[in-house]
Amino acid sequence: MHVYRTHNCAALRAADAGQTVKLSGWVHRKRDHGGVLFIDLRDHHGLTQIVAGPSSPAFPVLDRIRVESVVTIIGDVVLREGGAINSRLPTGEVEVRAKDITIQSTADELPMPVAGEAEYPEDIRLKYRFLDLRRDRLHQNIMLRSNVISSLRRRMIDQGFMEFQTPILTASSPEGARDYLVPSRVHPGKFYALPQAPQMFKQLLMVAGFDRYFQIAPCFRDEDARADRSPGEFYQLDFEMSFVTQEDVFAAIEPVLAGVFEEFSGFGGRDPWAVTKGAFPRIPYAESMLKYGNDKPDLRNPIVISDVGSHFVGSGFGLFAKMVEGGNVVRAIPAPGTADKSRKFFDDMNEWARSEGYAGLGYVTRKGGEFGGPIAKNHGEEGMLALYEALGLGPDDGCFFAAGKEAQAAKLAGLARTRIGTELGLIEQNAYKFCWIVDFPMFEYDEDAKKIDFSHNPFSMPQGELEALETQDPLTIKAYQYDIVCNGVELSSGAIRNHRPDIMYKAFEIAGYTQEQVDANFSGMINAFKFGAPPHGGSAPGVDRMVMLIADEPNIREVIVFPMTQKAEDLMMNAPAPATLKQLRELHIRIVD
Question: Full-prediction pTM beyond 0.85?
Fold first, then answer.
């Protein structure tokens, strides 16, 4: 017999009755029923019920041992009686009557329970993450993560991609988020940077002649945490392809993502969720900003925002009329089926908008065809009928309005769309809805710096290439840039790359960079492009966010094995921590208060 186990704790079935077995695991729960101990023994695989009566040699040991201690038990498999069968457990038809026990290690009093899914403060959970990971929900999430990565890897290889590893110690880049810097011991005063992404390296792999690259890549950015962004490090499915158009990139990655989400859509024993079929919808950036108020639309929400400023030109509602005449916009956000809602619902939405820092959210009510509210009263019956007809709204539909400068009105309208969809129960449940956001602007005007700058990715190929850069207003140039979005969560950005030095120099010139600055800041890439670079493009969907969506978790921390706090602290390992004087001297660093 094996020294620790003959079976794992999820393996035994009714057919095993009569066998003598050895199991090892953690004491999950203890119950004393009239002097008979019932123990749930847990390992990575599952649970088995152990029974020990007063005559069992294991009884006194199990009686005094704390939960989460690790034991090895030898016993006989017996069938449970009918009323004792637990249909929720794979092992629920049997139990093991303990004959012998060995304590492998004992547990101190726990700072947090493992059995059950009670909420606990973040600092406790992260300080004792090894205990937190024993809890069933989190344990299953991490198993899901491993399986998702395996599936991604298999699907990419099946698509003809080769896996390569790019450097972790590299040079700092002036673009993007803040770098994590690593001091060099052998080069005093110089620093490496941890890669924010393998961007330049994967492009250089294409220049080197490899056709299809991918890796499950660690990335490091000194950014603040959000519900869908972990501080410090994250992982992405990084990939790049040579001799491809934008549509070629889409065709390569869509079946990978859809396939993974379909494969795990029944996670946790739930009914499988619907996944976007066929080609993902392509939504131009400008259309997305208008219809959804942002560039990461949740297509489960049926509400579509419209620009209705023209309806208020010369209107009796003077506030909107003056705003439109002054160059502002008015956006309408339908609130379908709100005839049964009281005035308070609409007033609460207005107060919510003010709490978000906006002037307010105008509204019109309608019940049985009768309009209500100051906007309707001043705009007039005829004007309101024309507006509702244009929006396709019915006799029992309300409508909210966001007005102001275009960017501000779009943002408020987008937030209101989400809130209204949620409040009215309009969000489609149990579905993953993908889309591509395409045709991002190549440049934008920076109001603070009073200059034109890149709006998204400086290394993207402008649509129209060099001719567009030389002949068009820069603010009208679009780029071959695209984002993958699922359920309102941006999974990644990507682009067809600018592989020609002449186009790159011109693009950076428009953004205020000299050729010398480009050569100095991006020497590795620009030098490589001078020796023959293929047209290439790719993307990098975030693994953490994919798993978060599949697991239906509200926070990305729940799918990362050892996450940091929102302040980028590792409470378990006490990082970051001060360096010793010896370490600082070796690195030629002095701490200045």
Answer: yes
pLDDT in tens, 427-438: 999 999 999 999
Tokens encoding 456: 């998204």
Nearest to 543 by CA among 230, 232, 291, 136: 230
- Strand order of the β-sheet with 362-367 is 306-307, 329-335, 398-404, 362-367, 370-372
3-class DSSP state of 591:
coil
Give dist(CA 104, CA 71) in Å, integer.
Answer: 5
Q: Please, are residues 507 and 458 in contact by the beta-carbon 8 Å criterion?
A: yes
Residue among 519, 513, 443, 504 nearest 474 (CA): 443
| CA 252 – CA 440 distance, rounded (Å) | 21
SS3 sequence of 384-452: HHHHHHHHCCCCCCEEEEEEECHHHHHHHHHHHHHHHHHHCCCCCCCEECEEEEECCECEEEECCCCEE
Share of the chain above pLDDT 70, in %: 99
Q: What is the pLDDT of residues 275-332, one digit of tens each?
A: 999 999 999 999 999 999 999 999 999 999 999 999 999 999 999 999 999 999 999 9
Give 321's contacts (C-beta < 8 A, 6+ positions apart). 312, 313, 314, 315
End-to-end CA distance of the chain: 63
Looking up tokens 């002095």 gives 590
Which residues of 146-276 form beta strands (DSSP E)?
A: 162-163, 181-183, 191-193, 212-221, 232-242, 274-275
Q: Is residue 230 a contact partner of residue 563, using CB atoms and an 8 Å limit? A: yes
Entry field: residues in the chain: 593
Q: Is the pLDDT of residue 175 over 80?
A: no
Tell me: the pLDDT tens digits for 130-149?
A: 999 999 999 999 999 999 99
In this prediction, residue 132 carries a pLDDT of 97
In sequence order, the 6+-apart residues with CB closer than 8 A to the CB of 69 are: 26, 27, 103, 105, 106, 107
* Strand partners for 30: 39
Please count the other Cβ atoms lying within 10 Å of the Cβ belonging to residue 185.
Answer: 9
Distance from C-alpha of 276 to C-alpha of 287, rounded to nearest angstrom: 20
CA 464 to chain centre: 33
- Identify whether the C-beta of residue 529 lies closer than 8 Å to the C-beta of residue 209: no
Across the chain, how many H-helices and E-strands are there? 18, 24
CA distance 398 to 394: 9
Residue type, 263: E
| CA 28/CA 113 separation, integer angstroms | 10
| Structure tokens belonging to residue 315 | 């209107």
Cα separation, 508 vs 487, whole angstroms: 34
Closest by Cα among 497, 136, 432, 467 to 277: 432
- Which residue in the block uniquely carries the two structure tokens 């393996």? 11
The answer to whether the CB of 259 falls within 8 A of the CB of 266 is no
Cα-based distances in Å from 236 to 170, 211, 233, 333: 18, 20, 10, 35
